Amino acid sequence: MTATDPSRESLEMDDSKVKKDPVQSAIGDIGYWQIFICAIIFLLKFPVAWHQMGIIFLAPKPDFTCSNETLSRCDANCPQHVFNTEIFTNTIQRQWDLVCNREYLSNLSQTIFMLGILVGNMFFGGLADKLGRRIPLVIAVTVQLIFGVLASFATNYWIFVICRFITAAATGGTMVTSFVLVMEIIGIKYRELFSVLYQVPFNLGHLTLPLFAYYIRDWQKLQFALSIPSIVLLSYYWLIPESPRWLFTVGRVNESAKILEKAAKKNKLPYEHIKGDLESVQELKTEQVAKGTIVDLIRTKNMRIKTICMNFNWFVCGMCFFGVSQYVGEAGGNLFKNVAISASLEIPGTLVCILLLKYWGRKKTLIMSNCVSGFALLAIAFVDEGEHELIVILATIGIIGMCISFPTVYLYGGELFPTVIRNIAIGTASMIARIGSMISPFIASGLSKTAHWLPPAIFGIIPIIGAVLVLFLPETRGFPLPETIEDGENFGKKEKKKITA
Questions:
Q1: pLDDT over 90 for what percent of the chain?
Q2: Cβ pair 12, 481 in contact under 8 A
């Protein structure tokens, strides 16, 4: 994530000066206003899931032969390929003959899509720092709608890839701006809960994807059907307010006060004092903490260890979640059933994460979830290729583990790194995760042609390595957030006082 989180950066002041966060004290930790905004924002996670996971049904494992029955299907002299249309009437492989020596283009399209997510995270994250959260979010959902629909009318492969890349960049933008906005209006007491609940609509979107694909067997119609619902999100222009915390942070106190007063009324809280409180706190914001740079992530030994270990675990999540989800689609058996089963079990896995983080902490939760995924996926390497049901069960267990790991690394990373480089640290980690997701299609699909056991072996070993690296990280649950580079370097070296309130 690349957008700054003023909730932890700009507003964490000296207790001797400011006893309360003026923004949060105005509207409370949670209320009708926050719940309404979050409910609306959570809707955009459906198209996020549809676009990111749609390749499973846009480009399913092809069944084809050569039109000349005397030749093998990938013979260089084969004049034309004939595709089985019993399950899917049209796919991008059939549309543009992406088989044999052109098979890599199918995986390449998903890799480029994931690159678009990375670019969108960076571009819209920076835009959100300059323009606020609302306008970049509206721009992102609009671009997502337009180019998602245009992709369904693509007349050649590269137009399809370009449209999907732009759609992905916009999708990355909706992810980064929406998450920041949610975290900025929810109180500290509930941020842990909502950082996990934020993932549930994505799981629901993944679950509804096979339902779309079951009734729509043509890739162009499916792409259109997955894109057009985003038209509803254009209502964000009228329904979503600007982040009052961002407005306050950049000095636009009057605008922040107006939104907070309206929110306080919705939450049935007193609002007459809000503007005065904001102005009082604004006057105290005279001391500025020096910002860090990306070099500070690796400048000292302790920070270097944290950066390497945390970034690798983000890489694990990016590669294994999306890679295994695609692998399930190619595991054989009923594709629709396989995806539906794995997606349905993601939801309880994500919800369990809430309890684990609260009572077990970040470190143990991440080690456990990585081990569950790693050993389940590694076991597939020892299962016969024809045991489709067992493979899907083990792969689903692997995905459940990743559904716990992904929210954990978001929260863990935000708490592990000091305020002055927290934005840089999470932005860098998010980029590393996207690199993992860019590699994953070639592991899930490409390497399976080399050996059945190779993809699950890679997907299994990587999380286990990640679990081992977590051993070098300190627990962050209940500890005050590190502020300076010195705090970050010392965090984990010695005992720090836990927050008991």
A1: 49
A2: yes
Residue in 243, 272, 288 with CA at minimum distance from that of residue 420: 288
Q: What is the DSSP string of 206-269?
A: HHHHHHHHHH--BHHHHHHHHHGGGGGGGGHHHHPPPPHHHHHHTT-HHHHHHHHHHHHHHTT-
* Contact between 37 and 178 (Cβ < 8 Å): no
Tell me which residue of 445, 459, 447 sits closest to 62, measured CA to CA. Answer: 445
Could you give the angle at the alpha carbon of 466 between the alpha carbons of 468 and 425, nearest 5°? 115
Residue-level pLDDT at 9: 38
Residue 377: how many CA atoms within 13 Å on its side-chain side?
A: 32
Among 326, 332, 324, which residue's Cα sits nearest to residue 349? 324
Residue 395, both tokens: 């792969």
Rounded CA separation 498/6 (Å)? 23
The CA distance from 103 to 109, in Å, is 11
| 311 Cβ neighbours under 8 A, 6+ residues apart | 428, 429, 432
pLDDT band at 13; cut points 50, 70, 90: very low
| pLDDT above 90 (res 453) | no
Q: Which residues pair with 66 in a beta bridge?
A: 81
Range 412-441 burial, b when 16+ CB lie within 10 A, else e: bbbbbbbbbbbbbbbbbbbbbbbbbbbbbb
Nearest to 210 by CA among 228, 225, 229, 230: 225
Compute and round to an integer the Cα radius of gyration of the chain: 24
- Position 457 confidence tier, pLDDT thresholds 50, 70, 90: very high
pLDDT of residue 241: 94
Q: Where do the DSSP E strands lie in 124-179? A: none
Query: Is the CB of residue 403 less than 8 Å from the CB of residue 348?
Result: no
Per the listing, tokens 């038209």 go with: 231
Ordered alpha helix ranges (H), 54-103: 55-58, 92-96
Across 40-58, average pLDDT: 94
pTM of the shown model: 0.82
- Whether the CB-CB separation of 147 and 219 falls below 8 Å is answered with no
As a whole number of angstroms, the distance between CA 98 and CA 104 comes to: 8
Residue with the larger pLDDT of the pair 417 and 85: 85
CA–CA distances in Å: residue 484 to residues 11, 290, 417, 489, 491? 14, 9, 9, 9, 10
User: Given 3-state DSSP classes, what are the helix, strand and coil percentages for the chain, each rounded to the nearest 5?
Assistant: 70, 0, 30
